[in-house]
Amino acid sequence: MEIKNESITRREDDFAKWYTDVCRKAELMDYSSVKGFIIYRPYGYAIWENIKEYLDKKLKETGHQNVYMPLVINESLFNKEKEHVKGFAPETLIATIGGEDKLEDRLIIRPTSEVLFCEYYSRILSSYRDLPLLYNQWCSVVRWEKTTRPFLRGSEFLWQEGHTLHESEEEARHEALNILDIYDTMARDLLAIPFVKGIKSDKEKFAGAKETYSCESLNPDGKALQCGTTHYFGTDFPKAFNVSYQGRDGKVYTPHETSWGTSTRLIGALIMMHGDDNGLVLPPYVAPTQVIVIPIAQQKEGVIKEARLVYEELKKAGIRVDIDESDDKSAGWKFSEYEMKGVPIRLEIGPRDIEKGNVTLVKRNDGEKVTVSRENLVESVESLLKTIHNEMYKKASDFLNSHTYEVHSYRELVELMNENKGYAKAMWCGDPECEKKIKDETSATIRCMPFNQLPVDDKCVVCGKKAEKVCYIAKAY
Predict the structure, then answer these.
(1) Whole-angstrom distance, CA of residue 51 vs CA of residue 159
(2) Which of 282, 307, 305 is nearest to 294 (CA)?
(3) Residue 17 DSSP code
(4) Closest Cα to residue 207, out of 237, 166, 172?
């Protein structure tokens, strides 16, 4: 008996329910028995592996080395940096018993690893010749969140966290901004997502950082999502852990530190940015399967054989391809299944196609059917994958541009946030009280101040005083 695909809630009816439906029914994840801790199913984890492969290559090209730090941090060590502790204390999971013994110095399951790296740096750094230290680790971290949602906010998530030391502030800031550019390029070239980049306000910056830079996506429900951050720490962390080195002049100096990270939250960004009422729509270069081969009337002689030849040809060309020759489900069921999983191209091949020397390619992003010659199959598929990526990026960019509004009064800001239409681009005087008023009265926050500070007005959108800071304001996840 043929089993039909379960329906997915329409986005316009309930965006949050739609999102959860896609996560479950496209087999990206499942829930574990512990709240906030999810199971990454093979299809979802494969997306993360493709992101990881891209970033890992870029980081190694820029001189970064992978390391791995312990899962736990002694509480006494964690408490050495007060601002850091203040920021993360409400989110820490603490182990108090080891075996049958109560721990005198409790163990914190890492929420991030600055203190672990700094302790390590204090032992290995001695001279300016050792600098810069450019490290990255791939791991999971635990932050005890009260409200969780798959990929977007969890008690445990996968990520990469980079930690570097430099001789000068200029070099450290350059590192933080360079990594932000790598994230931005990755989003454009791999995920087909445009980011808004900029500097976080002091209230929104990372605990203990001098300055935080972020990249933010804007999702179809009008909410922003912080997709990656980089931080310039200055010398405070290293000083707290007695990290120092002998400089070129023989004197002792404290190095300048950065950290940066992006996470499986990017999978959530992918789902929301590109998905539709039929499920996932995956950009080709991050999709675990780029082409699914579906034999039509496969019981007829020669169809399965030709479908397998097509599969092998594409596989040999380095295209991520799969074939579904199961005989207990109809072609229509298969179409729906792989549409829900967001496979960029469906390749149909049946008796008529074989007779004419063609195959039919169906684009997931818009449903367009393209008939191509069997002779030029590889070239046609590669060209179509590129076209799909470019179309998806343009659609996302057009959405970002059309849902970014210049706002010149507080009334306009409140109305825009109440309607949840997207970004308000407005002026801010820099007063934390104005920032607090925005959050208290609209639930929106200053997402970032763009690097291009081209004024849209000369007055603060909240208090009307002279303002020089351009900022993006939105509700966020």
Answers:
(1) 10
(2) 307
(3) H
(4) 237
Closest CA to 368 of 376, 377, 359, 360: 360
Residue with the two structure tokens 């010398």: 235
pTM: 0.95
Whether residue 111 is preceded by a cis peptide bond, meaning omega within 30 degrees of 0, is: no
In sequence order, the β-bridge partners of residue 291 are: 321, 345
**What are the pLDDT digits (tens) for 376-425?**
999 999 999 999 999 999 999 999 999 999 999 999 999 999 998 899 99
- Asked if residues 365 and 390 have their Cβ atoms less than 8 Å apart, the reply is no
| Alpha carbons 450 and 470: distance in angstroms, whole number | 7
The label of the residue with tokens 């901004």 reads 177
| Alpha-helix runs per DSSP H in 140-232 | 169-186
Instruction: Quote the DSSP letter at residue 238.
Output: H
Neighbours of 175 (CB within 10 A): 24
- What is the C-alpha to C-alpha distance for residues 424 and 446, in angstroms, rounded to an integer? 9
And the tokens for 4?
């039909």
How many Å separate Cα 66 from the centre of its chain? 20
C-beta separation of 11 from 223 below 8 A: no
